[in-house]
Automatic annotation (TrEMBL):
GO terms for cellular component: cell outer membrane. This is TonB-dependent receptor. Belongs to the TonB-dependent receptor family. The keyword Signal applies. Residues 1-29 form the signal peptide. PANTHER family: PLUG DOMAIN-CONTAINING PROTEIN, TONB-DEPENDENT RECEPTOR-LIKE BETA-BARREL DOMAIN-CONTAINING PROTEIN. It is found in: Cell outer membrane.
Length: 856
């Protein structure tokens, strides 16, 4: 129970409430309705206690950020991050309208804005562009940044000319805390334990954030957080095949794999920020953010190659398996640790001069990935041949075999060891300056930006088949539990690593694998530099309630790279490697016009028309060539790829419901030229007799859509119910896309990774020291990859995420919380051609967490 508030004026109540909570964030930002804030504070005293209103406060901040923005954007504040059971930045962003995520092991990883590939987004930390540890893509994984390291997350969907133009999907802005975001000293901490019933593991998490302002001019903000999460997943993957012109339902299971993942995932985050404001017209800052993401993964899998049998149809989707050779059943054990580090630092300031305002910034970001120890041991069944049945009438194919020899590790013989180390380094330096001239009801702004980026990728894989036979029985453990079927006896990755540490020197590659090993260890390697020079001019004019922003941005890109041409002889026993160099320079002119009209009764109307770009993936433009003469295949990079260029139109209508609510509707249209697709062509004059795989600029892609968003505190309800907070959003997409495939003329395609429907909704309640929320996010199916025919297109099935959180405040300084994630126990599911052909089914189960928050 808190101490009763005895003051009578609403302003004094608000001040007392803020100081007693020990948090420095004000209850409203500049320009917000003071009466609404006073009503909020007064409501907190009706119960004769101090109330902590984290959900409402974060909603006020998000609404105010959207309302005051000149661009079309949505935001999440730091308090909202604490209200969701979110492990990382990607999962926090999925709550916003028009935003969804793709998942890795059940956790959000890549952010999808308005249905467009994450490759088409830009990501910045405190205004500095951040790279990616991915070896070929530009998509920045946001699961590497813990939510506790951030203060605000913003998604700008229609950038103004003073913002970088590489944002066809959207610009994702990650912002860490400033001490001036809070008043005076603030110290907050939390500890948490989470439990996953599927694995039986309980995992710790802790975070602490401190800030203080000295002499009203110098501020320090520090945050440190740690999480060590152990969990498991059950995965089954199926491969189907048939004639090239097969219908989606007319394909047969040729391979089935049961996979068991055991994962230990550590996140460490830290941010240290300094602010100095010596006078009203001058401010300076240093922002630093570091995150480390360690992922130790053990994967066991049992593989059934049914295509090696004589497959005889016995009915619709029913087959008899005759003469299945024993080596068609395999066991594999893989272990690897992946370390991804992200560091961002920016140093800058702002000075108000006699006739202008100048702001400037220099920045440095470093992202890296290290996989030094990936290894996989492979074994084949060495026993009598089998027979059996195969039934693919259910969600996953069912099978029976004539004996259970495959379940005993003593019956397996060593096949090979695969080593797959990888290293990625991505570094960028940047500098920018902006000058703004203010006039009566107008301002004019010009700016320069330079970015200097270096990437180095070293991807290796080698097969070692020469060496002593390994007795799999010596690595045997109990059979792992799996929801979809048995894997037989288990294998210990610890014993595998111990064996390899002692005996790795005894193993080598066979001569006939020299070419294949050269391909997997050299073809994907490249070093690249990319320099971007941008300038812009922009004007802002206020005509009554109308604000007009117009300008143009010009970005010049200079790219150079060194890759390898790997030419493997037909017998695969010899190869040649030739370095290849590529250089490219191009410029993009990006005009933009933005209108904002503040109508009466809290209505805001917006419209914008602009151009944005997204540069090709590094893996696509690296100057690589891979010849496989035995397979008559050629794989080519394409340094001549043009960037995607999009013409965008946005319209939105927003109605603000006091200081806590909003209802909005937005319409948007994107016409994307040169959409990049991977093609396979034959009869290329330069490579006669070869199948040539290469990414090319395809035809235009079109995206049309609508976004709806509503959120509000139901303060008008009777006492006891007036603590309800509700919200709902929806995104509807219609896309046209022609991949330019000669064999599929006339087929209609969704834009890859674009869901037609994305919905989210939440119901929260804050009263009597209780803050609770249930939140759901739904994403409809989407096209993942394009095959040679409709029967071979891969789709990701619809997915619904339902999460719950409850926070109870014992005093103004201490609260206890409970969180539950994936309450519906929904899996990740992929299918091939039709929903009845499940390609992958991966289940994670539910996760529960209990924690304690303290504010001093």
């Amino acid at each position: 129970m808190g101490t009763p508030v005895q003051t009578k004026t609403p302003l004094a109540i608000a001040i007392t409430l803020t100081l007693a909570m020990g948090v420095a964030a004000p209850l409203h930002a500049a320009g917000q309705d003071v009466a609404a804030t006073s009503a909020l504070a007064a409501d907190a005293t009706d119960l004769d206690r101090i109330e902590v209103r984290a959900q409402l406060e974060s909603q006020i901040r998000a609404v105010d950020l959207k309302r005051s923005s000149d661009a079309i954007e949505d935001a999440v504040s730091s308090d909202a991050l604490g209200q969701y059971p979110d492990k990382n930045v990607a999962e926090s962003l999925q709550r916003l309208p028009g935003v969804s995520v793709t998942r890795d092991q059940g956790e959000g990883r890549f952010v999808v804005v308005r249905g467009l590939d994450a490759n088409l987004n830009s990501v910045s930390i405190d205004g500095i562009a951040v790279g990616t540890p991915e070896d070929s893509s530009r998509a920045a994984p946001l699961d590497v940044i813990p939510s506790d390291s951030t203060e605000r997350l913003r998604v700008v969907k229609s950038p103004t000319p003073d913002m970088p133009g590489d944002a066809i999907g959207g610009a994702i802005l990650v912002e860490s805390a400033s001490a001036f975001d809070r008043d005076g000293r603030s110290l907050r901490g939390k500890i948490e334990g989470s439990h996953q019933p599927l694995s039986g593991h309980t995992s710790p998490k802790a975070a602490i954030n401190y800030s203080e302002v000295f002499a009203d001019t110098f501020g320090v903000a520090l945050g440190v957080n740690y999480q060590n999460r152990k969990f498991e997943s059950d995965n089954t993957e199926v491969e189907y095949d048939g004639e090239d012109d097969a219908t989606p339902g007319d394909v047969t299971t040729i391979n089935l794999q049961h996979r068991k993942y055991e994962i230990e995932r550590k996140r460490i985050g830290a941010n240290l920020n300094f602010d100095w404001r010596p006078s009203e017209g001058s401010s300076y800052y240093l922002r630093t953010l570091y995150s480390r993401f360690d992922d130790a993964e053990t994967r066991q899998r049992t593989i059934f190659n049914f295509e090696d049998a004589d497959v005889v149809a016995t009915g619709t989707d029913q087959f008899r398996l005759d003469d299945l050779p024993s080596d068609a059943i395999q066991k594999r054990m893989r272990y690897r640790t992946k370390e991804e580090n992200t560091f961002a630092a920016s140093l800058g300031g702002e000075n108000r001069l006699t006739s202008a305002v100048v702001d400037y910034k220099v920045g440095y970001t470093k992202t890296e990935e290290r996989v030094d120890d990936e290894m996989e041991a492979r074994f084949e069944l060495d026993a009598d041949d089998l027979s059996g049945t195969l039934d693919q009438r259910s969600r996953l194919p069912r099978y029976t075999l004539s004996n259970n020899d495959w379940m005993d590790n003593t019956n397996f013989a060593y096949d090979r060891m695969i080593l797959s180390p990888k290293r990625v380094d991505d570094n960028e330096h940047s500098a920018q300056v902006n000058v703004r001239f203010d006039a009566d009801n107008a301002s004019y702004k010009i700016g320069l930006l330079g970015r200097w980026r270096e990437r180095d990728v070293d991807v290796n894989e080698v097969e070692l088949r020469r060496g002593p036979a390994i007795d799999l029985d010596s690595w045997t453990t109990g059979a792992p539990e799996h929801r979809h079927g048995s894997l037989g006896q288990g294998m210990s990755s610890a014993l595998m690593r111990r064996y390899w540490a002692a005996n790795s020197g005894l193993y080598s590659a066979r001569p006939q694998e020299a070419g294949a090993n050269a391909t997997t260890s050299l073809e994907e390697d490249y070093s690249a530099s990319e320099d971007i020079f941008a300038s812009y001019a922009m004007g802002t004019w206020d005509i009554g309630a109308l604000r007009i922003i117009g300008g143009v941005r010009v970005e010049n890109t200079q790219f150079s790279a060194v890759g390898n041409q790997v030419d493997v002889a037909e017998d695969e026993r010899s190869f040649t490697v030739t370095p290849r160099v590529a250089n490219r320079s191009y410029s993009n002119v990006l005009p933009g016009l933005h209108l904002r009209y503040d109508a009466a009764d809290d209505w805001v109307l917006r419209a914008s028309a602009n151009k944005t770009v997204s540069r090709p993936s590094f893996g696509d433009i690296s100057p690589r060539v891979g010849y496989s003469r035995g397979d008559e295949e050629v794989r080519l990079g394409n340094p001549e790829l043009d960037p995607y260029e999009s013409t965008n139109i946005d319209l939105s209508v927003e109605k603000y419901l006091g200081s806590t609510g909003i209802v909005s509707l937005g319409l948007f249209h994107k016409s994307i030229d040169g959409y990049i697709v991977e093609t396979v062509r034959q009869n290329d004059p330069a490579y006669e007799g070869f199948d040539v795989t290469q990414a090319i600029n395809g035809d235009k892609a079109t995206v049309r859509g609508a976004e709806f968003n509503y959120q509000q505190q139901l303060a008008f309800l009777p006492p006891g119910l007036d603590g309800l907070l509700v919200g709902a959003s929806g995104t509807w997409l219609d896309t046209d896309f022609d991949p330019g495939l000669a064999d599929r003329q006339g087929d209609d395609f969704m834009l890859p990774r674009a869901s037609k429907h994305v919905y989210s909704a939440h119901v929260g309640y804050e009263k009597y020291g209780l803050s609770t929320r249930i939140a759901a996010v739904y994403r409809s199916e989407y096209l993942d990859s394009i095959g040679t025919g409709r029967a071979f297109d891969i789709f990701v099935a619809p997915h619904t995420q339902l999460d719950f959180s409850l926070d109870y405040t014992f005093s103004p300084r201490v609260s206890l919380y409970f969180e539950a994630q994936n309450l519906l126990d929904k899996p990740l599911e992929l299918y091939q051609g039709t929903r009845s052909r499940t390609l992958q089914l991966e289940e994670y189960g539910r996760t529960y967490a209990v924690g304690l928050k303290v504010s001093l």
